[in-house]
Amino acid sequence: MKHVIIGTAGHVDHGKTTLIQALTGTNPDRLKEEQERGMTIDIGFAALKLPDGTIAGIVDVPGHERFLKNMLAGAGGVDVVLLVIAADESVMPQTVEHLDILRLLDVRNGVVALTKSDMVDAEWLDAVEEDVRAQLAGSFLAEAPILRVSAVTGKGLDALKRALLAAVSRAEARNAALPFRLPIDRVFTRPGFGTVVTGTLVAGTIRTGDVVEIVPQGIATRVRGLQVHGQKVNEAEAGSRVAVNIAGVETDAVARGAQLAAPGSLAPTRTFDAVLRLLPHASKPLRDRVRVRVYLGTAEVLGRIRLLDARTELEPEGRAYVQFRGEVPFACARGDRFVVRSYSPMTTIGGGIVLDAAPARHRKADPSTLAALEAKERGTPEDLVETALRSATVGLLRKELPGKVGLLAPEAEAALAALAAAGTIVVLPGDRLFHSAVLGPLTDRTRTALEAYHKQFPLRAGMPKEELRAAIEPPKTKDSLRSGSFASLLAYWEAQGLLVTEGATVRLAAFQVELNERQQALLARIEEVYKEFGIAYPTVEEVSRAVKAPPDAINALLRVGAERGRFFRVQEGVYFHAETIAHLQQLVRDSIREHGTITVGALRDLTGSNRKLALLVLEYFDAIHFTRRIGDERVLVGS
Ligand SMILES: Nc1nc2c(ncn2[C@@H]2O[C@H](COP(=O)(O)OP(=O)(O)OP(=O)(O)O)[C@@H](O)[C@H]2O)c(=O)[nH]1
Ligand SMILES: [Mg+2]
Question: Are residues 607 and 601 in contact, defined by beta-carbon separation less than 8 angstroms?
């Protein structure tokens, strides 16, 4: 199932919350003060079941200008926007500001709801729709459907759900194979559980038991429990609203703005280099080093923006390379989008993309700094290779790389060499390339799957390869682990000492079948039965009766015994004891030495058995290249 977040947007009192309640049955206004004032103050949440059964997480934001900071905390994880415009008022200031913010955050999909349609007549609705369409021109919602709805009469709600489903289907799924990342938007205490943090999982997959880091606080902890849409789950994927119960962390040690991340995947910083764009309708130019508010993930960070080129101010609609210096540490990574508001008055003036989350100090108007940032924005060969491999959930063949990233082969190879030396990219047997951020989780899943298998089947030597392949298949991607990529991975893990492959099965290198006393005693008794029967081998049912144990247990122990060289599997379901085989080999060897060859009849007579059994034995000896058949006779191989 696809995991997508739908976020509301729109001017205060335009009917966002009422519409979400009408669509989902949940009132996202959860604070007492919100209920009393009939106004959203902080972001609220609900879950919407779409016509195809997909459940989308909903983030409902406040429209009032004064709470824009809270809107920004909710907007970061939005995949699809539901822009709500009251038909009686049409486009208002925060309609425009929310749209600006979503555009700066690179939201690309959405639906427009002209709500409160019950309050106006058809002619008015036509005029408002025309006005809205004109205002959306040039934005990512230019082609978006505009639906006339009413949360009070229920009119148009089904059509709205269908339009949302279409937008959700168009939205690109977030990458569940990356290291996980969850900007925290709420922190609270659950009696008996301890600290719970919530947020939108913007990348990766998080599981119960995972070790997590809280950035920038630098606290390492463990996931004690997870919930998605109020249901307990063991794992949650990117694009879900998640509540995470974390172990041993005081509630006041964490706050909105921090991020939960896979250990080592996200570092705290105080500065970043970025490309910044001012909005065309920014109220005034941005002066160099002026104090601003930067919104990133769920965080608001005060700090100063330095223009790195020669300019002393940036005009509205202008674009510049900048360095942001925050007054406190925060979590951010290359590629993150951010929004800038002026310190006072608080208006949204622009936003951009982080190019370097751990930059050096730069001299003003230094051409080499500017050139380096330009390359980072465009993407160096290394960036391009890294980016391509980050999303290659089943890896990429080395020879496919240049074509995939649009580089000449020598350029791609040079970039690859540097990235491989840094450990960012791993070259697997078969010249298959994996990003370490993709390979790591895949390796973890493999270890976990094998551990679980060994635990469930302690007497089996290993897990069937196909079963493992299905168990570690990357989630929610169009790629699948085909034989080539899977074989490369197995060879790599085997070389790394993680696992051992044997025929069609795989086991953890450290795994050994261990029998308890009872099982050992049973195995010894089974051996006795087989030895007694000799060439006239017993059936499993006969053994079962003789030792008074169920056939399943016999079969499992026969497999273990075979691995330990106590039995030989002569045919499907037919085992001979090792001593019987040794004895038969001796008979055959002596007979051939004496007569030059042996026939089925001769072995039958030597063993006092029948033709069928003698033939079975000789065919087995042929198969293991002990004997070789010439016409009706057999000779020893290698003699
Ligand atoms: N007649 C009519 N009234 C509506 C409709 N939808 C909302 N309202 C009313 O409009 C007012 C504001 O609705 P809310 O849902 O709180 O608006 P909001 O956009 O969530 O407001 P903020 O969260 O504060 O920005 C309430 O009094 C609602 O009862 C509708 O479809 N028809
Ligand atoms: Mg509201």
Answer: no
